[in-house]
Amino acid sequence: MLVVASVAKILGKMRNNPCDWRIEDLQAIARHFGIEYSQHRTSHCTFRHSMAGKLTVPARLPLKPVYVRQFIELIERLTRNEQEV
User: If we measure between CA atoms, which residue out of 80, 75, 3, 73 comes closest to residue 33?
Assistant: First the structure.
């Protein structure tokens, strides 16, 4: 399990440099925030959360920066929605 400080640090690094990230990095962050994900024998990983929506990411290495940015937006929607509730 990731510590909150390390999660914030990793997200900061992702924002500053969305290149060279792995699908496992996104999955670790997703677990911390309670985002469900599935990747059953497919080349894509789908992240889902009832309050933040859905994002499908190709699991090729390295991840394209656009998908890392979209994942960060998913996290931001989730934290924004949680603060409103």
Answer: 75
Which amino acid is located at 16 in the chain? Answer: N
> In the beta sheet, which residues pair with residue 46?
38, 56
Q: What is the largest CA-CA distance in the chain?
A: 37
Please list the pLDDT of the chain residue by residue as tens digits (85 residues): 566 678 889 999 999 999 999 999 999 999 999 999 998 888 999 999 998 899 999 988 889 999 999 999 999 999 887 777 6
> In which element (H, E) is residue 48 found?
strand 44-49
Distance, in Å, from the CA atom of 46 to the CA atom of 4, rounded to the nearest integer, reads: 23
Looking at the chain, list the stretches that DSSP marks H as alpha helix, in order from N- to C-terminal side: 4-16, 23-33, 65-84
Q: CA quadruple 56, 58, 59, 61: dihedral positive or negative?
A: negative
